[in-house]
Specification:
Layout lengths: L5 H14 L4 H18 L3 E3 L5 E3 L3 E5 L6 H46 L7 H18 L12 H14 L4 E6 L1 H4 L4 H10 L28 E7 L1 H4 L4 H17 E5 L11 H9 L1 H17 L7 E3 L2 H19 L6 H8 L1 H15 L7 H22 L4 H11 L4 E2 H7 L7 H17 L2 E8 L2 E8 L1 E2 L8 E3 L19 H4 L5 E3 L2 E2 L9 E2 L2 E9 L4 H7 L5 E5 L9 E12 L3 H14 L15 E2 L5 E4 L14 H13 L3 H9 L5 H14 L4 H14 L6 H21 L1
Parallel strand pairs: 1-7, 3-5, 3-6, 4-5
Antiparallel strand pairs: 1-2, 8-10, 9-10, 11-18, 12-13, 13-19, 14-15, 16-18, 17-18, 17-20
Helix pairs in contact: 1-2, 2-3, 2-14, 3-4, 3-11, 5-7, 9-13, 12-13, 12-14, 14-15, 16-18, 20-24, 23-24, 24-25, 24-26, 25-26
């Protein structure tokens, strides 16, 4: 079971309430960054048993949709909490530590110059000279930036030199809206890549000139912290910026970053505005904030340059976690190099974050609890990372974009709106084909129509049909007062509607309850069909054996002429225009192996209830995507029907027969032919021809001794009845 750092959770609680967002992982990542930032400003280090001394520092990438509190939460942390530490650090600690270290450096430099014969002055005089040089150099380097939001590699190295002179503080890059600012900060991010582990960077060799004198390299390290945040859409744009970001991950940021990633708003739900307001101004919230402010003030009063110890037992505990991660990485495919790097180095991110937690607790050592707190966040980070890496490809984004469009769009409009929708005409068409295929597998229907040689596209995300709540409008009038009940009927109770006299029902709702085409409210989840005597109930039941349906006889039904209503739920709730609905139903009629009344293609069609016989069949729900006009799937369905080259019934059985059900389907096919009043010899001939056409026919002896015998017996029964 995961557990999280108690002090951090108090901050997260405040952010959740203040920002009205319950994304605790986002706030844990944010809080971890600021605790690391404070700890590294105080030069907190960890004395490891296997890697010598490492600094406490943290790199994070936090992505969340726009308008969900990224800026607000950051402002709370900076202004309400960290500001109390910042003031004391900049006004007191840093100047004092800088003065002390510059004096030490001057003393060491003066003694070294005398020792090697570069100076003949007395030590105190040489010291004053070197002190003045160091002080002037320190002043020329400008004011310390507590944090910065952009920079260049030379500027970073200059700031690093000031920190080395002071032997205090850290460099903290906080990059807002990383998607927009990534390219402009490539150099500084490359430098930060090198600084992460222990705060060291290789010095660039430059030629001495009058204008540019190579300075003497100062000893020591400078910890760095990095926070990048923004919206997923701007960073993961499917174009150049995303490619650049992926390169950063490949070159080392995957193993260094803690990740927060969500595409949901995570807004906290309240019963009323009053409840939300009370949560935000609650007196306990104010007390908690005051207590945390005092804690941040006290951070500046801690001993400077603390070194956290970690016991052998806890080192082994961390190594066990490391080995577990390595085993998981070994199981990953070779092409998942970025995932492997992130997994293998989780332990290193964990110990650095554990150090920040230990500092916050004023502990002299990293305990197992600190490691557990950090590992919980690192594991959550790993989940966010994998979600980020599973992000949509260009064709997926195209499909979802089209599904979100309210109106049709053209290729030109897509090129204007989507950075990844580029390239040649052939490349764009390939991308659209992939999007359609993706949509087909993921309940997104993309329709295409052509007008004046211009292609128009429209997408829709389909909602799966809820069989416990189906759309029917009911009235006791033939044209008016059609209403969808507040509690929609489940499928297994539809017979109560179809068999209760005095009612009319439809598969759509209507504006103001007035039943006419122009008033239709789009959205249906039932096929309602009339069978008017051309196909007996026994045949229909046989043919539709594998599907869910309700049969309800009508008032013109007789024993010799079967007239009944056939109601089938469909897989998804479909919204279609009047014209598209008509074409949808035409596709259904073409697919069915028996004739039905084609008046059902009228979108405003109504049916009358009747106290007749009813019966249900349990089975699969019909896939509605096969019939939606102007889609790839409906084109495929039509092509399959056309390619069959046989009658509807034989085509039906061919489409539904496989190796495991051959005998059953041959028998059922024979029964349908009996229902069709075909002679026995013709039936056997049909069955034999059908069996031989199968990829794996039923063996001849089984066909003769089982199928033919059974059908002959049923034929004789019908003949003598």
């Amino acid at each position: 079971m995961k557990k999280y750092h108690p002090f951090s959770e108090r901050i997260v609680d405040i952010l959740v309430r203040k920002v009205n967002n319950d994304n605790r992982h986002f706030f844990r990542i944010l809080t971890g960054y600021y605790l690391s930032k404070v700890a590294s400003m105080m030069r907190c280090n960890i004395q490891t048993n296997d890697r010598d001394v490492i600094p406490v520092n943290t790199y994070v990438l936090n992505l969340m949709v726009s308008g969900t509190g990224k800026g607000h939460s950051t402002n709370i942390l900076e202004r309400e909490f960290v500001a109390y530490f910042k003031k004391e650090f900049l006004n007191t600690i840093f100047p004092r530590k800088a003065e002390e270290n510059i004096q030490t450096l001057a003393q060491e430099r003066a003694q070294a110059r005398i020792n090697i014969g570069q100076s003949i002055l007395p030590l105190n005089e040489e010291y004053e000279i070197q002190l003045d040089k160091f002080q002037r150099h320190f002043d020329r380097l400008g004011e310390l930036a507590f944090s910065f939001d952009s920079g260049t590699s030379p500027a970073v190295k200059q700031m690093r030199e000031k920190l080395l002179l002071a032997s205090a503080g850290s460099m903290n890059l906080e990059l807002d809206e990383v998607g927009s600012n990534l390219s402009a900060n490539v150099d500084v991010l490359n430098t930060f890549l090198e600084l992460y582990d222990v705060g060291l960077v290789k010095q660039k060799l430059i030629k001495n000139t009058v204008e540019n004198i190579r300075s003497e390299e100062l000893p020591g390290n400078t910890p760095t912290n990095l926070m990048m945040f923004g919206t997923p859409t701007k960073l993961l744009d499917g174009g150049r910026i995303e490619d650049e970001f992926k390169q950063f991950l490949e070159t080392g940021y995957a193993r260094r970053l803690l990740f927060g990633y969500t595409t949901d708003s995570h807004r906290t739900k309240y019963a009323s505005a009053q409840e939300r307001y009370q949560q935000m101004v609650d007196i306990t919230l104010a007390r908690d904030m005051t207590a945390i402010q005092q804690t941040f003030t006290n951070f500046a009063k801690r001993p400077f340059n603390p070194v956290l110890q970690i016991s052998e037992a806890n080192s082994v505990y961390l190594i066990e976690y490391q080995m577990k991660c390595e085993e998981l990485a070994d199981d990953m495919k070779d092409h998942m190099s970025i995932h492997k790097a992130e997994m293998i180095h989780r332990y290193y991110k964990a110990i650095k974050l554990a150090g920040a937690y230990a500092f916050a607790d004023n502990s002299t050592e990293i305990t197992q609890d600190h490691l557990d707190y950090a590992i919980s966040v690192v594991e959550d980070s790993g989940e966010a990372f994998h979600t980020l890496m599973r992000k949509q490809g260009p064709y997926e984004r195209l499909a979802h974009y089209l599904a979100d469009c309210d109106n049709e769009v053209t290729h030109h409009e897509l090129m204007e709106e989507l950075p990844f929708y580029k390239g040649s005409e052939a490349q764009r068409k390939d991308l659209m084909t992939l999007a359609m295929s993706f949509g087909y597998r993921n309940n997104i229907i993309i329709k295409k129509r052509v007008l004046d040689d211009i292609e128009f596209f429209l997408g829709e995300t389909l909602m799966e049909t809820d069989l416990s709540s189906l759309t029917v409008a009911i009235s006791q009038d033939i044209a008016y007062n059609f209403k969808i009940p507040d509690i929609k009927p489940p499928f297994d109770l539809l017979h109560k509607l179809t068999t209760t006299p005095g009612y009319h029902y439809t598969a759509h709702g209507f504006v103001n309850g007035h039943r006419k085409s122009e008033n239709v409210i789009p959205g249906f989840d039932l096929l309602i069909l009339d069978c008017d005597g051309d196909a007996p109930i026994s045949m229909v039941k046989n043919l539709l054996e594998g599907y869910k349906f309700l049969i309800s006889t009508t008032k013109r039904h007789t024993a010799s002429i079967n007239r009944f209503r056939l109601i089938l739920p469909i897989s998804h709730r479909i919204k279609l225009t009047t014209g598209d609905y008509s074409r949808f139903m035409e596709n259904v009629f073409e697919w069915l192996p028996f004739p039905v009344d084609e008046a059902a293609k009228d979108i405003a069609r109504k049916w009358e209830s009747y106290a007749g016989h009813y019966e249900y069949n349990d089975g699969a729900v019909i896939d509605a995507t096969m019939f939606i006009p102007e889609t790839k799937r409906s084109d495929e369905t039509k092509a399959q029907i056309s390619a069959a080259g046989v009658g509807n019934i034989e085509r039906w059985f061919r489409a539904h027969t496989a190796k495991g059900n051959r005998a059953n389907h041959l028998y059922r096919y024979g029964m349908v032919l009996i229902d069709a009043d075909m002679a026995l010899g013709d039936i056997v001939e049909k069955l034999e021809s059908f069996n031989n056409s199968l990829d794996t026919p039923l063996p001849e002896d089984q066909f003769r001794n089982s199928t033919v015998k059974s059908i002959s017996k049923e034929f004789q029964k019908r003949s003598t009845a």
